[in-house]
Automatic annotation (TrEMBL):
Gene, per the UniProt record: pyrE
Keyword entries, A-Z: Glycosyltransferase, Magnesium, Pyrimidine biosynthesis, Transferase
Residues given in the record as 5-phospho-alpha-D-ribose 1-diphosphate binding sites: 87, 111-119
UniProt: orotate binding residues: 115, 143
Lineage: Bacteria, Thermotogati, Thermotogota, Thermotogae, Petrotogales
Catalysed reaction equations from the record: orotidine 5'-phosphate + diphosphate = orotate + 5-phospho-alpha-D-ribose 1-diphosphate
UniProt-listed PANTHER family: OROTATE PHOSPHORIBOSYLTRANSFERASE (PTHR19278), URIDINE 5'-MONOPHOSPHATE SYNTHASE (PTHR19278:SF9)
Keyword rRNA-binding set for record: no
Superkingdom of source: Bacteria
EC identifiers of the protein: 2.4.2.10
Entry's family note: Belongs to the purine/pyrimidine phosphoribosyltransferase family. PyrE subfamily.
Molecular function terms, GO-annotated: magnesium ion binding; orotate phosphoribosyltransferase activity
Protein name per the record: Orotate phosphoribosyltransferase
Record's function text: Catalyzes the transfer of a ribosyl phosphate group from 5-phosphoribose 1-diphosphate to orotate, leading to the formation of orotidine monophosphate (OMP).
Subunit record text: Homodimer.
């Protein structure tokens, strides 16, 4: 499966000047919702990630919104339950809808894209506070610069080497370009 080609074909991989949820600027944006809207690709990506998991998993957890579809597909392939976290009014990750983690449960955290790892780390912290054991993290796209979560690299389908900059360092801003924010999350 040529994941890069699928991302380009579905317009999930964009080039330009973007403001990321982290507040950083980038020349590349990955909007996995554009590829995951196709159930066949979502299912295939879920199977591909599940095939890379080499530990026992009791449950898959994803942060809403980006991780919902791919997390569900990975859980389906692993034949384990799937739940998700959401942000409360204070923008803190929480379990709602009577979702919870049992003490000692082996958890795989699945995201669509990992850039800074902030959301994934928040989900890991919540799981550990509930007594769960995070056995790994996974994503479709790893666009981080060597972000480790619990001292482990995430499982991923594609590494995208996208440049990120602070507003002050951004060469596109210095040329007068204004970033666009195609994602759904407010700037943090």
């Amino acid at each position: 499966m040529d994941i890069m080609n699928i991302l380009l074909e579905t317009k999930a991989l964009l080039k330009g000047h973007f403001l990321l949820s982290s507040g950083l600027h980038s020349d590349t944006y990955v909007q996995c919702a554009q590829v995951l809207k196709y159930p066949n690709y979502a299912e295939e990506f879920g199977k591909e990630i599940a095939n890379k998991v080499n530990v026992d998993v009791d449950i898959v957890v994803s942060p809403a919104m980006g991780g919902l579809i791919i997390g569900h597909e990975v859980a389906s392939s692993l034949k384990v339950p799937f739940i998700f976290t959401e942000r409360n009014d204070e923008s803190t990750m929480v379990f709602r809808r009577n979702f919870n983690i049992e003490k000692g449960q082996k958890v795989l955290v699945v995201e669509d894209v990992i850039t800074t790892g902030k959301s994934t780390k928040e989900v890991v912290k919540l799981i550990e506070e509930k007594g769960g054991i995070v056995v790994g993290t996974a994503c479709i796209i790893n666009r981080s610069n060597e972000v480790k979560i619990n001292k482990k690299d995430p499982i991923y389908l594609l590494k995208v080497d996208a440049k990120t900059y602070t507003k002050e360092e951004c060469p596109m801003c210095k040329k007068g370009s204004t970033p666009i924010k195609p994602g759904s999350r407010k700037k943090i």
